[in-house]
Specification:
single chain, 68 residues, mainly alpha, 0% strand
């Protein structure tokens, strides 16, 4: 319950900061990145998910210049 409340508060603050939330902005990029980080790290291992996120971030940041 605490995690859900924290996520809801963070979402509310983010919406207030941006001013407008479009549901389509989450459909492909954010969800894909989150699932990929969890899969890389392992679904049953909390430390692995953190490591998977770090690995995915390094790969994503390191290959940005390749895309257009």
């Amino acid at each position: 319950m605490f995690g859900s409340a924290l996520a809801g508060a963070a979402g509310g603050l983010w919406a207030a900061n941006i001013g407008f939330i479009d549901p389509t902005q989450f459909a492909s990029t954010v969800t894909f990145f989150a699932y990929t980080a969890v899969i890389i790290g392992g679904t049953a291992n909390n430390r692995g998910v953190v490591l998977g996120t770090a690995v995915f971030w390094v790969i994503n940041s390191g290959t940005r210049f390749l895309g257009g």
